[in-house]
Structure to design on (947 residues):
């Protein structure tokens, strides 16, 4: 019997607003405990929440990017539960009337596009953090009240790879929009998964488990792989999957059930009477629409169309908005966008990866890559020399022209000069010439090498080749 | 005898240089020291006069504030063990506005714990006595404020009203109490009981003092999302105006549930209003009979959530011995809250639970809409609606303490105004055979405090019990 997995993801993204969702405290990460707090986010008696409009703006942005239905009327609700890091004893969230419904995240998988439908997206506040130490437990409320969007997909994914692509695509979009930095390790993007299996072809969903505690893209896929296999094994052995929350244990690579005590929640949602219904008018939506950047997929299509670069290269370039913009600025300096793409993808990213740096850290200005490509195209330097120049650019940030001039790297293209070198080399290597004559045509490489050695690689290889063949044939 | 004067009388005296605010403070402090041991109107009173440099209409005169509103640097106990050690770190917006207008403060008044009650008997700091008869309750939950104003322990005070907590004690203590339109006065710094019902308002000895305080405390507050963007006006200009030709509705059915005294006082009130040119006619409120039940679903639901923050983690009371987190929660909340508060938390938790939410909370919200509609329809036709404030005179201490349902019914006339957000005032309209004060409630449409002030002021000119207040 063949089984099929059904996966739905719940993703929380921390929004990059300067201040918290219901008070004026900073959202900066990493401050000393309880320094970004005030009576409101500490849940002091007598305080009231006031909605940060920026959070709504960011939600609308995401809604537009994912083609969600933007509800003109939405409400905040209280989710009631006790936990020390939840200062009010309830979390302000949205329940019956979320700000966004529907929409989809498009993913690229198996060489094609697929739309992963969304259930809803709602706004809520983050909780604080409990830190357990040997002498007791401590609470840090710096994170309490940091705005979150919870993005709930429909259960329409069928493999860990799909889930992984969905996450990557979503992350790419929120980073493009500038609403979240998408850092899973730091917790600014968090993912829980609902997963079930069923016999392929059946419509009815199987019993699901909820997976938590997956702190990287890799772990989401690993946890799903494990859990799907586990559930299939249970069914194959004639057992039943139990509905439960399971924690991914990255050390042992398995999922373990959470103690059932911790999961039996009764949240008693009800509309928050401290906050008025949120009304969004068309003008607000239009104003936000004007601030939307070009999104990854549109950019990808435009790069292929406008610059004629290979789709697989374009796909890598649009992965990060900064990288895409870098490429575009470089490409505008050159008539050879594909070469520009090659330089960025193989050389620049190679160096950056080696140094653990990002595109924003490089000393090379995108225009300089364009200029380097032009130097090669015009034959001023050879491709090989260009690599030396590039290395120098990477280290110093200097213009390629300057490096070429200062180091005397300009290519020798004077035919007379090269002809003289060719003759010298042929004369001093009669044996090799004989071999060539005897039919070993690949000795030509040897001659090229000799000439390059004499010129420190500056001789134009095309001319060298041409003249070598001519001279050898003449002999 | 400065403590006997009204706020506007004292403002004039200070203005004319005849009295210094410090003298008023000292007069009050002396009065408090004489009386409060018996009345117990205060949770905390202040021994030191803290002068206010800001020149404002209140001229440095001292006011009392219900102990569920913050005055920075002073304790806010909510008359609960849970907050018995809590010091406010900011001013409530209403308090800040009073300060900006030159007010000073004499103390924080007693209340039913977390404002949950109608008799001030549920206070952790003991019951407040009715100054007219100390064997009786002052009403509640703003019983401390009403008793202080009635007994000369305060000139004027702020109270809060969730289901009648300003009007009912004002009525039982023979003073004036106004619950403004929901959203008129910022709730920021008022410790929440039921957020969609709570409203701060004045408790004073006459209508003019209520108008003076309203002028100061009302207005939009960016810190309270539910506060209304309505222009503040000078309510004193509605005093002493003719109310000739006003259409007044009276909820006659309500009188059947009232004591003989209250019925007599209402008849007299109708006569007075008619003599002032009002046309008084009976009205119907088809859903009013459900108001108390409705309230006792919505208010506890909100309260159960609002009071979740008192968990012993961050501030306030924490039980001393516990073996784990769960036990810390349970013991802290079990020991920190009194019986009535626990009862309402349980009620509220129940009605919000899955499986009951639709049957109780959601239905209650729908009913609230129907009650609101009843009033909306009436206000198309009537300028205001009158009823008794309470069905009886002040009851004996302990008389209803063990019977929550009886206690809840003492708010039967005041609750609808909270459910419908409308403003309502209670002014004295008679004395019972026992010589205890009774109150007339005047309700108007939302943001029509102008009508309330007009009618209350005109009525007060014809009838008041100022000279009978227990001020000696
Ligand atoms: Zn804050």
């Amino acid at each position: 019997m063949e089984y099929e997995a059904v996966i739905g993801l719940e993703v929380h993204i921390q929004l990059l607003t300067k201040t918290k969702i219901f008070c004026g405290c900073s959202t900066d990460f990493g401050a000393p405990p309880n320094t970004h707090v005030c009576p409101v986010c500490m849940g002091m008696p007598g305080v009231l929440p006031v909605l940060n409009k920026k959070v709504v703006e960011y939600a609308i942005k995401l809604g537009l990017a994912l083609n969600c239905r933007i509800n003109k009327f939405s409400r905040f609700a209280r989710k009631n539960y006790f936990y020390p890091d939840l200062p009010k004893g309830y979390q302000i969230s949205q329940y019956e009337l979320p700000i966004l419904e529907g929409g989809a995240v498009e993913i690229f998988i198996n060489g094609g596009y697929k739309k992963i439908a969304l259930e809803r997206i709602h706004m809520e506040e983050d909780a604080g953090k409990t830190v357990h130490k040997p002498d007791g437990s401590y609470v840090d409320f710096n994170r309490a009240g940091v705005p979150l969007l919870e993005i709930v997909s429909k259960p329409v994914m069928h493999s860990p790879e799909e889930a992984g692509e969905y996450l990557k695509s979503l992350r790419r979009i929120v980073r493009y929009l500038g609403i979240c930095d998408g850092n899973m390790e730091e917790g600014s993007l968090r993912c829980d998964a609902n997963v079930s299996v069923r016999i392929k072809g059946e419509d009815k969903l199987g019993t699901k488990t909820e997976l938590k505690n997956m702190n990287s893209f890799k772990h989401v896929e690993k946890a799903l792989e494990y859990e799907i296999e586990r559930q299939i094994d249970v069914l194959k052995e004639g057992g039943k999957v139990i509905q439960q929350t399971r924690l991914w244990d990255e050390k042992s690579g398995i999922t373990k059930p959470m103690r059932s005590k911790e999961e039996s929640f009764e949240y008693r949602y009800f509309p928050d009477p401290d906050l008025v219904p949120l009304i969004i008018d068309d003008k607000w939506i239009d104003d936000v629409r004007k601030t939307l950047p070009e999104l990854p997929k549109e950019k990808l299509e435009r790069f292929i169309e406008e610059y004629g670069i290979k789709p697989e290269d374009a796909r890598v370039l649009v992965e990060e908005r900064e990288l895409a913009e870098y490429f575009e600025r470089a490409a505008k300096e050159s008539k050879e966008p594909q070469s520009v793409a090659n330089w960025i993808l193989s050389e620049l990213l190679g160096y950056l990866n080696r140094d653990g740096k990002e595109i924003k850290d490089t000393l090379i200005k995108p225009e300089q890559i364009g200029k380097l490509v032009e130097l090669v195209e015009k034959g001023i330097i050879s491709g090989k020399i260009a690599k030396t120049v590039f290395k120098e650019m990477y280290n110093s940030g200097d213009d390629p022209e300057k490096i070429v001039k200062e180091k005397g790297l300009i290519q020798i293209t004077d035919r007379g000069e090269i002809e003289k070198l060719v003759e010298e080399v042929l004369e001093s290597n009669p044996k090799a010439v004989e071999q060539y004559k005897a039919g070993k045509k690949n000795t030509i490489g040897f001659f090229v090498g000799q000439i390059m050695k004499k010129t420190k690689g500056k001789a134009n290889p095309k001319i060298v080749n041409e003249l070598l063949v001519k001279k050898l044939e003449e002999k | 005898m400065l403590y006997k004067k009204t706020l506007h009388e004292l403002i004039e005296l200070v203005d004319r240089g005849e009295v210094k605010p410090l003298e008023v403070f000292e007069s009050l402090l002396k009065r408090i020291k004489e009386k409060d041991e018996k009345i117990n109107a205060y949770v905390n009173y202040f021994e030191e006069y803290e002068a206010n440099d800001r020149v404002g209409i209140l001229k440095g005169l001292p006011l009392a504030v219900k102990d569920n509103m913050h005055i920075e640097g002073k304790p806010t106990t909510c008359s609960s063990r849970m907050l018995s050690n809590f010091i406010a770190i900011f001013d409530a917006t209403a308090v800040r506005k009073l300060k900006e207008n030159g007010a000073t403060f004499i103390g924080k008044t007693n209340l039913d714990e977390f404002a949950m009650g109608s008799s001030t008997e549920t206070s952790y700091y003991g019951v407040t006595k009715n100054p007219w008869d100390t064997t009786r309750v002052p009403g509640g939950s703003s019983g401390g404020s009403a008793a202080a104003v009635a007994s000369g322990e305060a000139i004027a005070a702020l109270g809060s009203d969730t289901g009648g907590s300003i009007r009912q004690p004002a009525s039982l203590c023979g003073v004036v109490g106004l619950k403004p339109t929901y959203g008129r006065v910022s709730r920021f710094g008022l410790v929440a009981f039921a957020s969609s019902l709570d409203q701060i308002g004045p408790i004073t000895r006459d209508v003019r003092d209520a108008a003076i305080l309203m002028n100061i405390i009302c207005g939009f507050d960016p810190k309270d999302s539910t506060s209304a963007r309505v222009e503040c006006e000078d309510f004193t200009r509605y005093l002493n105006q003719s109310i000739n030709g006003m259409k007044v509705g009276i909820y006659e059915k309500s009188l059947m549930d009232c004591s003989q005294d209250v019925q007599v006082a209402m008849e007299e009130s109708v006569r007075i209003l008619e003599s002032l040119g009002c046309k008084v006619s009976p009205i119907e409120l088809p859903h009013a009979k459900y108001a108390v039940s409705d309230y006792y679903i919505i208010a506890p639901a909100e309260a159960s959530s609002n009071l979740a923050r008192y968990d012993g983690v961050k501030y306030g009371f924490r039980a001393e011995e516990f073996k784990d987190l769960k036990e810390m929660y349970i013991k802290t909340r079990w020991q920190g809250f009194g019986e009535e508060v626990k009862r309402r938390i349980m009620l509220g938790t129940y009605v919000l639970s899955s499986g009951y939410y639709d049957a109780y909370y959601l239905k209650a919200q729908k009913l609230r809409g129907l009650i609101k509609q009843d009033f909306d329809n009436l206000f198309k036709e009537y300028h205001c609606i009158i009823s008794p404030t309470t069905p009886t005179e002040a009851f004996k201490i302990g008389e209803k303490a063990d019977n929550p349902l009886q206690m809840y019914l003492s708010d039967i006339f005041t609750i609808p105004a909270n459910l419908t957000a409308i403003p309502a005032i209670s002014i004295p309209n008679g004395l019972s055979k026992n010589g205890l004060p009774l109150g007339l409630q005047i309700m108007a449409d939302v943001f029509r405090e102008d009508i309330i002030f007009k009618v209350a002021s005109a009525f007060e000119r014809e009838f008041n019990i100022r000279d009978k207040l227990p001020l000696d």
